User: Fold this.
Amino acid sequence: MKFTVSTSTLIKQLQIVSGVISNNTVIPILQDFLFELSGSQLTVSASDLETSISSSIEVNAEREGRVAIPSKILIDIVKILAEQPITVDIDENTLAVTIQTQNGVYKMAAESADEFPTRQSTEGSDSINLSLDVMTTAINKTLFAASNDELRPQMTGIFFDLEESKITFVATDAHKLVKYSEGINTGHANRSFIVPKKAMNLLKNALANAQNGSETEISIGWNEKNVFFSFEGIKLDSRLIVGTYPDYNTVIPANNPHLLTVDQEDFQNAIKRISIFSSKSTYQVILDIQGDTLRLSAQDLDFSNEAHETMSCEYEGENMQIAFNARYLLELLNSVGTTQVQLKLSHPSRACLVVPTSDENTSGELVMLVMPLMINT
Assistant:
């Protein structure tokens, strides 16, 4: 195998696929990149057995081949080289890798590509197409809310729920829940699956490097065991999480009659300031709503810390005092994307809905939920 490529082009592809590589793997080949050169197309792949990702680019090719190259040393050298064309030459007999630049020559040992794991089977899979914009928005709106609790694995990913005319993405950790829906003719009714958080993070990073736009599409395929994403020369396969996802529709309250509307940025900044003085075990911030005045407060009795702020608001409903974990509330506010945000309340002990106002620049519907805390007395 022998080809020439620019350092900037190669390092971009390596960084896209390197996120799947685990530092703690006991299988040495999983520390490598798989390089496959066919014609002028170079495909770089990585895998951890559960998730695989590849990225394809055009290079100046001289000789085709397949080889596994150690990932760490390759990334370390390529990312610190100045922008320039480099020639990578692999001897298929000795598996010796030579990287030649304008001023230097670097050598390393490769491994046989035959040892590298194969991709997941697409047999029996269904598929849909989404715009990259929709997929990017769905991940950005939901991924942060997925749980890290391995004792409840079904909640450690994003739930894809397909109806005939809509696709819904859901994530929850039992303290907060986010549901993002997009109207689209899916061609599939009552189909659903759970994609692990690691795969979604890899997809998020890959999408950030793509030419996002409403005209560019991502193909999403799935079968009973796996999910497959494909766009712009990038392919990502992942095992699905087995199990039943919580019925999110029963968790979202149908009637929260008290409506609090505030400026998103002012509200977010006030919570950030107040939460500095909150207990580091609960991060509790209390909202005391009295007419058109919102009073925020927090205290840490162990260190005699206390803070209060007031801000104007629009409120329809009975006066109320309700408390939240500031970290959870800030995560939701970061995802709103509007100049104003509305909190829909019913009772200090019941879930609060956080919804954007109508100036959001997305076509989908976003609903977020956060559970309140018992107010410390």
